[in-house]
């Protein structure tokens, strides 16, 4: 399709065979369009290098021109810290991963929607209070976003969606632990998720992707015209759904402005289609803008209804509503990304080779009645290449858009794209770089805040193909690290990852380094309920070792200090409901203990200062050893005891 050799040296690095690249491209095209028997309407290319004739997108030339810039190194010497922390969504693994950038070293995994035996997530009572009593087997998380204050990351929380079970979770950044998970009512599959940037978070915005009957209780099964979905605003402090807005079409990704006035969501199914061809009929779908002040006012005035058992105010934001604005966007748009200068938001066309640049101030004008046609909010529609999915920013006026089908990232200039839209003869395209392969999101360092610093870009590629040693039929994804600090993008590293990080945020370490706790504080709410229970039993968890029986319920309290549990054994009767509470009184940084009961499915992590507990039925008689699972001491193997279960 075009001369692959232009993308040197990156594309010609070992293992990047141009012929295979074309195969990947064509198969992706077939997958997108062929399956539906439809052409990719509007995807014709004007030139070899996207829409801008003779653009600097010919990056081979670009590199010669600016050849003085050496790619930054991803090497972080032993003992040195990465400059950035990346919060990687774990996709269908249900977890969040903390990764150092540029080293791409994985520092930690934070279980969110997934059970995790390492720390006993889904085993301990403390985690079950977060997960709920009947927690589902996992989740599908896509979009991690940190809370903000006035458009700056504030280091308090990470919020993340669960598409698989229609939930939203909050992670405390001080202890890197999930502390709240909520179900979102009246909708199905939370996909897009973002935080309100100003004055603070504030709201967490969440898109219900799929359209369903309301209420979804068996009625209207065969009547898709009655299917609908809603946009939800969650109070990030209380984790309660504040309000929902009924929309036309479906909802894909969402974004917020920098002024605290609007949220905006893409819709790829304006058609209300039930299958792939059904969602690809219209040349334009839309982005829908939510006017937060008007919505809050309408809630205050009681202009809402509720659905079924839910008490959440539901407002009508369908076409004609004063609460929303529908901006036509070509075609099946996907990602939506606000520029860090606070002026623009870019909707990514997916089945159109374009992205649509919308100016927030024109949205003001539209809501004020000064602009009549919502399309007039679009101030540029640059053509970038095939399959634009997501856009990131460097804080220097440039945007970076992933091209899924082309397996490239297009760097383009926003001001030039607007000038070109106004008829000026300028090239907005700066460079295209090959990535391996099929990128979804890309993200820049600090790129979703006013502090976008334009140092690094990570491209989250869905396919790794032959970039790594074979791992069986299931391949890892490939996250590629790209230096964007100079004029030209430079590929620096490949990093295999377990499926499937959709999105990531890259935060400067200054946001977290002094705020993250190295041990638990004793009054931490995470285990406060367990400590309160002990108190009721007259137990001081820091010093007491006690077994307390209340009928068939047995409570076992002990402490851990390397290398011993304070109880060498305890006795219960078969059929008892047993609650073991362990408090780690080691105050030494990094001395975590684990408490595992063999053949009983119990393991929990107890880090310095923590109290952890697990409740189970002693349904097998006999001797069952418990032991410490974290190698904590030279005598760690000896850190054990016996649970004696009488027949
Ligand atoms: S989505 Cu997966 S690549 Cu869920 Cu943000 Cu676009
Ligand atoms: Cu405690 Cu190993
Ligand atoms: Ca569509």
Automatic annotation (TrEMBL):
Q: Which cofactor does it need?
A: Ca(2+); Cu cation
- Please give the biological process terms from Gene Ontology that the record holds: denitrification pathway
So which domain of life are we looking at?
Answer: Bacteria
Reaction it catalyzes: N2 + 2 Fe(III)-[cytochrome c] + H2O = nitrous oxide + 2 Fe(II)-[cytochrome c] + 2 H(+)
A Gene Ontology cellular component where this protein is annotated is: membrane
Q: Where is this region: Disordered?
A: 1-20, 44-78
Its Gene Ontology molecular function terms?
calcium ion binding; copper ion binding; cytochrome-c oxidase activity; nitrous-oxide reductase activity
Q: How does it assemble?
A: Homodimer.
Provide the protein name. Nitrous-oxide reductase
Native species: Rhodanobacter fulvus Jip2
